[in-house]
């Protein structure tokens, strides 16, 4: 009698986690950081069409690293989720926390039920009336969710970038200071210079009327950083 091949559930979960981590580590890191007037999101991204950072709702942004098609599908489902909730209830009922929880459940279900896990990490960030009211949620490939303060790093060499920011981050920085520190953290671990054309940068500016999200074009990135060069 031939016995069926058996793999323990623990080993299956470990193999899935290792598979996802390897896929995510192939990409480049992304940084979200609080500054004086809101939150800045910075990523190394030479592509002008395949974005890693998007607006989701009035005060909420989404950022993803890993396999592009997978986090792009998550972004689209998130847009549908917040639009439906905002229409059914009110715009004030749409929060980063509720969206992050929805993402956590969806990603966790894929990890436990499907053969192949999602090769992604995402951030859901919301700017508040003050920095104390900001929200940053980090969701891993297995659906694990954690909240962050001051800064958050996903993808690539996230541990090295986090260590650098832990030593150099300062509260209430200007936008220019926050941008410079973000790109410097990415540059240090990549060990190569980063030009404005290789950066994707967006902000959630609490002082901006209406929708708070704004992309920073390369020319403005160059102007903001020219005093540091």
Structural features, described:
Helix 4 (158-168) packs across helix 5 (175-190). The mean pLDDT is 91. The protein has six helices and ten strands. It is globular. With 229 residues, the protein is of the alpha+beta class. The chain has a five-stranded antiparallel beta sheet. A five-stranded antiparallel beta sheet has the order 3-4-5-6-7. The protein has helices at residues 9-25, 68-88, 96-113, 158-168, 175-190, 218-225, and strands at residues 30-35, 38-44, 53-57, 60-66, 120-126, 135-139, 145-148, 151-154, 199-205, 213-216. 40% of the residues lie in helices and 24% in strands. The protein has a single domain, classed as Aminohydrolase, N-terminal nucleophile (Ntn) domain (Glutamine Phosphoribosylpyrophosphate, subunit 1, domain 1, 4-Layer Sandwich). A hairpin with a 7-residue loop joins strand 9 and strand 10.
Class inferred from helices and paired strands: alpha+beta
Overall helicity? 25-40%
Round the Cα radius of gyration to an integer and report it: 18 Å
Return residue spans where pLDDT drops below 50 for at least 5 consecutive residues. none
CATH homolog superfamily: Aminohydrolase, N-terminal nucleophile (Ntn) domain
Total helix count? 6
The CATH class name reads Alpha Beta
How would you spell out the order of helices and strands? HEEEEHHEEEEHHEEH
Number of strands: 10
Stated plainly, the CATH topology is called Glutamine Phosphoribosylpyrophosphate, subunit 1, domain 1
Q: How many structural domains does the protein architecture include?
A: 1
The first-to-last residue Cα distance is: 73 Å
What's the main sheet like? Answer: 5 strands, antiparallel
Looking across the biggest beta sheet, what order are the strands in? 8-1-2-9-10
Overall residue-averaged pLDDT value: 91
- State the shape: globular
Q: Strand share of the residues? A: 15-25%
CATH architecture: 4-Layer Sandwich
Oligomer: single chain
């Amino acid at each position: 009698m031939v016995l069926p091949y058996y793999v323990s559930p623990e080993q299956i979960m470990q193999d899935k986690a290792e598979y996802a981590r390897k896929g995510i580590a192939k990409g480049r890191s992304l940084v979200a950081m609080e500054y004086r007037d809101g939150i800045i999101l910075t990523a190394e991204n030479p592509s002008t069409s395949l974005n890693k950072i998007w607006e989701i709702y009035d005060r909420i942004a989404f950022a993803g690293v890993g396999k592009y098609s997978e986090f792009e599908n998550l972004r689209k489902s998130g847009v549908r989720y917040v639009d439906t909730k905002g229409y059914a209830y009110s715009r004030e009922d749409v929060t980063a926390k509720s969206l992050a929880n929805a993402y956590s459940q969806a990603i966790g279900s894929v990890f436990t039920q499907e053969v192949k896990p999602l090769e992604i990490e995402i951030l859901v960030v919301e700017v508040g009336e003050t920095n104390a009211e900001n929200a940053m949620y980090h969701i891993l490939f297995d659906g694990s969710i954690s909240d962050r303060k001051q800064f958050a790093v996903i993808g690539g060499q996230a541990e090295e970038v986090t260590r650098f920011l832990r030593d150099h981050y300062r509260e209430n920085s200007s936008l220019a200071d926050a941008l410079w520190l973000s790109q410097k953290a990415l540059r240090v671990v990549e060990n190569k210079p980063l030009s404005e054309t290789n950066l994707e940068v967006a902000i959630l500016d609490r002082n901006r009327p209406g929708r708070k999200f704004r992309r920073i074009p390369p020319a403005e990135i160059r102007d903001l950083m020219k005093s540091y060069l």
